[in-house]
Amino acid sequence: MNYETVIGLEVHAQINTKSKIFCECSTEFGAEPNSNTCCVCTSQPGALPALNKKAVEAIVKTGLAMDFKINKQCTFARKQYFYPDVPKDYQVTQFEPPLCSMGKLAIVVDGKEKVINITRIHLEEDAGKLVHEVGSRKLDYSLLDLNRGSIGLMEIVSEPEMRSPEEAYQYLTELKNIIEYLGTSNCNMEEGRMRCDANVSIRPVGQQELGTRVEIKNMNSFTGVRDAITYEVERQKEVLAAGGKIHQETRLWEAEEGITKSMRSKEGALDYRYFPEPDLVPFDLPDSFIEEMRAQLPELPKAKKARFLKEYGLSEYDADYLTSTRAIADYYEGALNASKDKKAAAKPVANWISTELNGKLNASKKEISDSPVSSANLAKLVDMILGGTLSGKMAKTVFEEMYENSADPEAVVKEKGMAQISDESAIIKICEEAIAESPKAVEEFKAGKERAVGAIVGLVMKKSKGQANPQIVNKILVELLKK
Ligand code: ADP
Ligand code: MG
Ligand code: ZN
Fold first, then answer.
1. Which of 122, 236, 273, 403 meets the CB 3.0–4.6 Å disulfide criterion with 94?
2. How far apart are CA 187 and CA 354, in angstroms?
C-alpha cells in the first residue's frame, strides 16, 4: 500500500516585548527564578490583567506580513486546565475569533514553490516552567519558575498541508525568517522562545479523508522536527502494515534515542471549557491602527531580494544567500554603506560574505551576528583591494588575521608591511635591477621570445617580497625591454 504523509504544525513564538502580556514584569531570559513576577502573573486573587499593546502590534504585523485577514474584534477566553505550571488553573488565550485568520507562506522544496495555508495566529499567555533537576541532580519533587509565566505568545497553526518532513522543515525555516525580519519574536529555540508541535498522519494515496493524527511534542530544533516526523511516519506505516490502528495521541520526541514515545491518549481529550475572559473587555481594533502597522512593516525577504538584484546587480545565488536572514542582509548593506564606493564594492563584498566569511563562520559554528569581522572592517578590506593596495591573494592573508583577532585590516597591513606596491617609480627601480641580473632572459626576449619576460617578473616579485603589483610590473618590464 502506498501512503501519503500529512503534516500540520503548531508553532508557539514568544513575542519580543519588554514586559509580559498582562502585567509590567520583565520578559528577560535567565533571571533569578521567580524574580520577574507580580500579583498578576502569579495569579493572586483580585489581581487584574491589562493588555500589553505592543503584543497586539506584534501579532498584527506578523499577520499582515503573511497575508492574513486581520479580525478587528480582540477578545480573550479562559482555557481551563489543571497543571502546576499555570497557577490560575486556566490559561488566557484567544478562542474565536483569533486576531489573524487564513494566511499564507511560500516554501521552496526541490526547486519548486509551494504555498502553505496557515489557519490562524492568536495571542495567548505562556505557562511557567517546571524544573525537575538542579544541575545534574534529579529531584524527587518539582520546582516552579514563573518568570516565563504570562509572557505573550503567538500561536501559529497551519493547515494540514505539508506532505514531507522536508516541507515541514522548510516551513519552519521560512516562518522563522519572516518573524526575524519583523523582529516580532527572536525565535531562539534553545531558550524556548520558539516551540513546535507536529501533527502527523498518513493516508492511502488518493484518499480524501485524513488519517488519524498523532501530535508530537518536545522538539527543540528544526532538524529535530524533521527527524521526529520521519520516524513517526515509518512507525505509523509499520503499525498499519501489521494490521493495527493508529490512535489519536500525544507522543514525545526522545532525541537521544531517535524515537517517539506515547505520552497520553487524546481519546479522552481534555474539555477546556472555554468561556470569555471577564477581566479583559472585548474591543475592536481601529482601521487606522491596522494601517499604521502595515506602514511599519519592514522590507520582507522577497522584496529585499528583488531590490538587491536590481540595485547591486547581484547574481540570483548571491541575492538568495544575502537575504536568507535579516542579519546577513543587514551585514551586507552595513558593509556597503561603510565602503568608499558602494557601487564598486557591491559584488566583491557579496563575494567575500558568501565565500570566505560564510566558510569561516560555518567552520566555527558562529552566526553572522557574532562575526569577529565587523561589516565596517570588511568594507575597508574590499576598499584596499579596489584601490590597488592589496592583491586578492594578500587580502586572504589579511582576512585570516581579521577573523582570528577581530583585527582592523589597515592595522594588519601596516604591522606586517604588507601593502602592495603600486607606486611606479618604486617598481621601476626594482625592474631595472632585475633586468641587470637576468642577461639570458633579456637576450631571449629581444630575440622575439616574449614569454621570457615571465622569469624577470618572477625575480621582481621575489625582490619585492611579493608586494609589487604584478600587472604594473609586467607593463613596466615590457616598456623597459622595448626601449
Ligand atoms: P489541538 O489543540 O487539538 O492540537 P489545533 O487545531 O490547535 O488542535 O491543531 C491542530 C493541528 O493539527 C493543525 O495544525 C492541523 O493542521 C493539524 N491536523 C489536523 N488534522 C490532521 C491530520 N489528520 N493529520 C495531520 N495533521 C492534522
Ligand atoms: Mg495541538
Ligand atoms: Zn507580572
1. 122
2. 24
Contact 189, 12 (CB under 8 A): no
93 Cβ closer than 6 Å to some ligand 1 atom: no
Ligand 2 centre distance from Cα of residue 218 (Å): 12
Residue of minimum CA distance from atom 22 in ligand 1: 213
Compute the distance from residue 10 Cα to the ligand 2 centre, in Å: 6
pLDDT one-digit tens code per residue, 342-366:
999 999 999 999 999 999 999 999 9
Backbone angles phi, psi at 33, to 5 degrees: -50, 135
Cα–Cα distance, 328 to 333 (Å, whole number)? 9
Q: pLDDT tens digits for 361-388?
A: 999 999 999 999 999 999 999 999 998 8
Please give the model's pTM, rounded to 2 decimal places.
Answer: 0.84
Q: Which of 80, 212, 213, 233 gets mutated to test ligand 1 (max ligand atoms within 8 A of its CB)?
A: 213
pLDDT tens-digit series, residues 56-109: 999 999 999 999 999 999 999 999 988 899 999 999 999 999 999 999 999 999
**pLDDT value at position 190?**
83
Q: How far is the CA of 255 from the centre of ligand 1 (A)?
A: 22
> Position of cell 508530537?
216
Q: Is 94 in the pocket of ligand 1 (CB under 6 A)?
A: no
User: Which residues are 11's β-sheet partners?
Assistant: 156, 196
Q: Chain-wide mean pLDDT for the chain?
A: 94
CB of 210 sitting under 6 A from ligand 1: yes
The reply to whether ligand 1 has any atom less than 6 angstroms from the CB of 279 is no
The pLDDT of residue 451 is: 87
**78 beta partners:** 92, 275
Share of the chain above pLDDT 90, in %: 83
Name the residues around ion ligand 3, CB cutoff 5 A: 23, 25, 38, 40-41
**10 touches ligand 1 (CB under 6 Å):** yes
Which ligand 1 atom sits nearest the alpha carbon of residue 159? 16
pLDDT band for position 150 (50/70/90)? very high
Backbone angles phi and psi of 210, in degrees to 5:
-75, 150
**Model confidence pLDDT, tens digit, residues 203-249:** 999 999 999 999 999 898 999 999 999 999 999 999 999 999 999 99
Q: How far is the CA of 44 from the centre of ligand 3 (A)?
A: 10
